[in-house]
Amino acid sequence: MGNVVRDRVREKMKAELAQQAYAVFAERGMENVTAQQAAQAIGISRATFFRYFSSKEDAVVTALRSMNVHFSGMVASMSSVSGESLLELLRRSFEATVVAAEQDPQSMRDRIELVWSTPALRSSWQESLREQQMSLAQALSPFCANHRLAETSALLALTLFDHALVRWLDSPQRTLREVLDEAFDFAAMIDDKWAVKS
């Protein structure tokens, strides 16, 4: 029991430090900050930094992976709303991220730009999305008729989210809320607009 509690505390601390380090790298640029400088910026020693992370990139990847728990946890804690579609429920699962972007849009943009401009981190982000699809599908199971529908819905939602982030970076005059809502609205319109040529 003691080991389990200790491991949970360590994982929580690691996730918090990863998010703080991610913010430092995003603000200053990955190439412009050493691991020691990042450690100092978040109030820990270099030795402590490397106790939790093998490299700067590992800290950012850890921060990205912590999002997996966040999105699936949001869905798992949700209750269905009368008349709400599955797409609308999925859109709600991203609300905390949207609110965070509204509170500090520049910081959020810096973080996304860091990932998009660093090939290794971009690859890790895509891997994170694949992992997220599995955990999100599991959280969606109570809302879906079968697991295949849950898997497909999770893939669609994360693809829309990823697409919205790219569009947001390219549209500095718009908010993430506007871009994400638009992406989900277009997805909802597909059944009505799609026509198969005879």
Description:
With 198 residues, the protein is mainly alpha-helical. The chain has a domain at 57-191: Tetracycline Repressor, domain 2. It contains ten helices and no strands.
Key features?
mainly alpha
Q: Quick gist of this model?
A:
With 198 residues, this protein is an all-alpha fold. It has a domain at 57-191: Tetracycline Repressor, domain 2 (Orthogonal Bundle).
Q: Specify the helix fraction band.
A: over 70%
How do the SSEs run, as a string of H and E? HHHHHHHHHH
In CATH, the architecture of the domain at 57-191 is Orthogonal Bundle
Instruction: Round the mean pLDDT to the nearest integer and report it.
Output: 88
The span between the termini is 65 Å
Range of strand content = under 5%
Could you give a short account of the major beta sheet?
none
Number of strands: 0
CATH fold annotation of the domain at 57-191: Tetracycline Repressor, domain 2
Residue stretches low in confidence (pLDDT < 50, at least 5 long) are: 194-198
Coarse structural class:
mainly alpha
CATH class of the domain at 57-191: Mainly Alpha
Overall geometry comes to globular
